[in-house]
Amino acid sequence: MTMPQQTTEQSEIWKKRRRLFETSLNPFPEYRILRESDPLSYDEERKWWEVYRYQDVQCIINDYATFSSERLLKDQDFRRQVDEQEEFAPSILNLDPPRHRKLRSLITQAFTPRAVAQMTPRITTIVHEQLDTVASTGHMDVIENLSYPLPVIVIAEMLGIPSEQRAQFKRWSDDVLSPDEEKPRQTLKEMNNYFRPVIAERRVAPGDDLISALVAAEVDGEKLTEPELLSFCVILLIAGNITTTNLIGNAILCFDDHPQVMDELRADPSLMPSAVEEVLRYLSPVQRLVRVAAVDTLIGDKQIKEGQIVVPCLGSANRDETQFPDPDVFDIRRTPNRHLAFGHSIHFCIGAPLARLETKIALEVMLQRFTDIQRVRDIPLETVSGFLGVKSLPITFREK
Ligand code: HEM
């Protein structure tokens, strides 16, 4: 089958769409149009398929044999992002079974809801310490003062590295996702140079931290190689931080648009876990995943060719009216709420219990300590790139 050809007019539509998807906090009306009119769209310029309906998105993520995460790395452009001299191991995100299952089994224990629940007192202390720095002023930037430092401090402590270097970690997180050709490669190199001596040190003097546990871990009687260890450290430091930062910020954006929700949560804090789920659905920090077709296949009536890139749009699936009644209503009591914000199936987010707990505690403590929380509306929101979220979120409040 030949690929659909795009006319100039269609190409202009795609350009506009991409700009909207990359820069707007409200791509949802456009997703709705696409779910109805073109749920499997081929972007001729980028040469990939975008998938908008819940059911198709879920099928693609479930069918990891047909839609591979590993094949992306066979893409030469991607490989060029890392230094050719640097020995490089794909992160767990870019592996298919059987290697994926083996690596995943090493790390899941550290992130079970039970293991993570033990971190409640420490996370609560960190949130209080962050809010202490701004409480008496009556204003703060949710991102700078709370939602950025919190996950970074937590993961740095889990890895056993000094959280004081978090400005550096933030720069790495930003730069590794930069569209610039050189920056991601340079950053990965810098991160490897940072973690290499830490790993060497833990080999000699293991501690009670995740890096020491990974150094000691074995898969089928074999230890992880140094590139595999490095790529684990990098993914843990980066994957969880930007996403959790955006989730907490997005929760405040939702609450600010629905101020009655803050009163309801103060009156009944047991609603907080389902409120966090609703934020995940309503403003999902990760809007898109990427897969590569491992064989020729069909989605609906569309023929997907082996090697073609397929982009399941989680953000659209999470607003699909066939799965969620009144999908554009923010309903903190929504049940069931089978959103796909953490993915699904074998790559389901390892850090989900941690992200949920950090977000729940951050919001609970904010609502306990502050009233009259309001976004400073005369400062325009600036979106982050690559995720759905904002760079900065100034609010005012009254200390209780
Ligand atoms: C709100 C916060 C978060 C969101 C929305 C999120 C989202 C996701 C999504 C959608 C995936 C699936 C990717 C795919 O299928 O290709 C994923 C995987 C992953 N996430 Fe998260 N994540 C969050 C927080 C975290 C945290 C806190 C950590 C760890 C500290 C983490 C570590 C990982 C890892 C290691 C994977 C790869 C799992 C695998 O390939 O088996 N994430 N995440």
Protein architecture, described:
The chain is built from 17 helices and 12 strands. With 400 residues, the chain is an alpha+beta fold. It has a domain of 276 residues: Cytochrome P450 (Cytochrome p450, Orthogonal Bundle), CATH 1.10.630. The strands form 4 sheets. The protein has a 5-stranded mixed sheet with strand order 1-2-10-7-3. It has a 3-stranded antiparallel sheet with strand order 4-12-11. It has a two-stranded antiparallel ribbon with strand order 5-6. A hairpin with a 2-residue loop joins strand 5 and strand 6. The longest helix is centred in the middle third of the chain and has 32 residues. The structure holds protoporphyrin IX containing FE. Protoporphyrin IX containing FE binds next to helix 13 and helix 17.
Main β-sheet description: 5 strands, mixed
- State the CATH architecture of one domain: Orthogonal Bundle
The CATH superfamily of one domain bears the name Cytochrome P450
Instruction: Report the β-strand fraction as a percent range.
Output: 5-15%
